[in-house]
Amino acid sequence: MTPKNNIVIGIVGALIVVASWNVGADPAEFVDGIPNLGIVMEEVVEEISDVDERMIDRALWSMLETIQMAFVGTFVGYALAFPMSLLASRNLASKWVYVPIRIVLAGIRTFPSILWAILFVIMVGPGPFAGILAITMYTLGFVAKLQYESMETVDADPMDAASAIGMSKLQLIRHVVMPESASHLFSHLLYMFDYNVRQTSILGLVGAGGIGFYIITHIKFFQYGKAAFFMLVVLLTVLAVDLISVKLRDRYVVKSQRGVVDAAH
Amino acid sequence: MSSADTPSIVRMSGVWASYKKKTTTLQNIDMEIKVGDSHAIVGPSGAGKSTLLKLINGTMMPSRGTILVDNHRPDQRDSVFRSKMARIGYIPQSLGLVRNSTVLDNVMMGALSRLGGLQSLLKRYPDSEVDAGHKVLEQVGLSDKVDRNVYTLSGGERRRVAIARAFMQRPKILLADEMISELDTTTSRIMMNMVRDEQKRTELTVIMIHHDIELATEFANTISLIKGGQKVLELGNSKNTITNFSIGESVQSGNA
User: Which of A16, A47, A149, B34 is deepest in the core (most CB within 10 A)?
Assistant: First the structure.
């Protein structure tokens, strides 16, 4: 460890202490709070054992609604992001196009999905549609950035060769950029759906549909056991989505990326 | 072979080119290549040979001087010249293949300019074009690898895909940058004969960068030697002179 490293570690440590002090983060309070967690857990275990059929039904249907919202929002957002990312790529668009587009995309990314959800609840009223719109916007801002970053890494050689044989910009996108970045683009889609299922599960907190509505309602009425049951459904769904996405990634993404690595050697 | 009254297809006068303002890649190049010629460009690495090809297909602009290709100033931003670029077969040294596409898809890129906009974007190739693609792949000996992705091919096979793509352009001019490097002697000869046959059949003009001076003298009727960005020698239409030159002027010596 060099003296320079020690200084950096010292400064970061001091900043953590100062920032914690400023926001009133007290470790002693955390320790004092542990028994409270025990009380809640007791209640959860007690209530979760008498979950009835009606509740299971409600949890599964609202989870299905959540998945559908995430599905529609992810695909629509992804489709909207694609043309935006083409316009935001430095190797495909001029400075006068990609700079303003990137600013717009950065603006969209500034809002977390829950803020978009509040906005759309105000616009179109509470319900899943507001949630879909929120997920769409979030996906658009986020995926467009991932996409244009991938497109910018496409090897310049095939692009130069394509344009040297007189191919148009659109043909170049279709025949060079899309196949060369396909595995990344597919990987982004999987990642985003996976992420959006988690996000959509909390949009109900602001009235934008999905399973989150039941979670927040039960919490409000101090029915922690019921809330926990709904959370358990979310957890199991997220695990399942994660598993499927890993399988798909292994099958389609890893294989084609291995090809790119082979080609580079 | 061209005669004195054969029209020229490439004409350069006083051409200078540079990548950055400070360094000059090519200096004061004059060149005239006639329709149907087979012109070889030889010279050590870094002499500016590839730059010369880029100037001809309009992907690079000269800093000084004039160039006319098929009676037009080559510039890829010019829509009229862009339509001509579709008929300028180009085999860059790096090949410029799309690795995650199939061999056939790469070859079909050479035909895109002949297809309608939507047709080319949806990859709805007419049967006649697909047949032509298969035929050219058969010529380069890749008919068993049509549906393979390019990244699975060997270096020599990839080179042949790039050659097939250039032929698919039905070129009026063929620009080839070390087209046959990485190929064994037999395959090299097959490829060179393929070019020669095409020249007999059509009025194809070939401008080819060679590393192998023997092949250059065998297949070219005119040769330019480029060294340090300058054209130091041009020889043509006489095998004797070319042979004498290859003995006297060692191209390989500049490669050290």
Answer: B34
